[in-house]
Amino acid sequence: MAKKSSKNTILIIIIILAVLSCCCVTTVGAIGGYYYYKQRESDHDTDNSQDKYTDQDDDNSDDISELIYTNDEYNFSIELTEGWEDYIVEEDEGSYFDDYVAIFAFILTSSTEGEITIFTIDIYTHDQWEPYEDYYEIWGNTYILGTDDDYVYTFSHMNNILPDDLSKKQILYNLDNIRNSFEFL
């Protein structure tokens, strides 16, 4: 009986150690992920370009339809809608995992929450896009804008929750119009 009791005690100790090991690994992974995210965010704030909107036609500076973002490096443009007058575009070229070419984050500033990325245009080589090709529709908020000989261009948007001051501008209701305005130069 004593042998069975000691075997049970050893088994319980092994199970407890296994659970503690899993907890430690998960905690270390979470902490590492947090610091990786914060480092990327810090690098993103200091190293990446940030462009403010400039009106394409000075004679029509009051005309909302002239909110056009043009990217000459990657040869595309999109037309933004009302509510985007003071947008910012942050560019992130390359990635730690080399899984994209560039990401252009389109940002609005909320009076209560600060800068918020509303959508991104992500650019991939065809090889980089291949692993995502069969799954992007499942994500529900990512769309292919177009492809050319070199790249696949995608549009990804946030999930329908905005601070009140941006919600009142109906920003999310116009995302389809913005997405559909994508053109190659």
Description:
- The protein has 185 residues and is of the alpha+beta class.
- It folds into two domains: 1-47; 50-184, no CATH class.
- It is 35% helix and 29% strand.
- The chain contains five helices and nine strands.
- It has helices at 2-47, 126-129, 136-139, 164-167, 175-180, and strands spanning 50-52, 68-71, 76-79, 88-93, 102-110, 114-125, 142-147, 151-157, 183-184.
- The strands form two sheets. It has a six-stranded antiparallel sheet. Strands 2-3-9 form a three-stranded antiparallel sheet.
- A hairpin with a 3-residue loop joins strand 7 (142-147) and strand 8 (151-157).
- The chain starts with a helix and ends with a strand.
- The model is unreliable at 32-50 and 52-62 (pLDDT under 50).
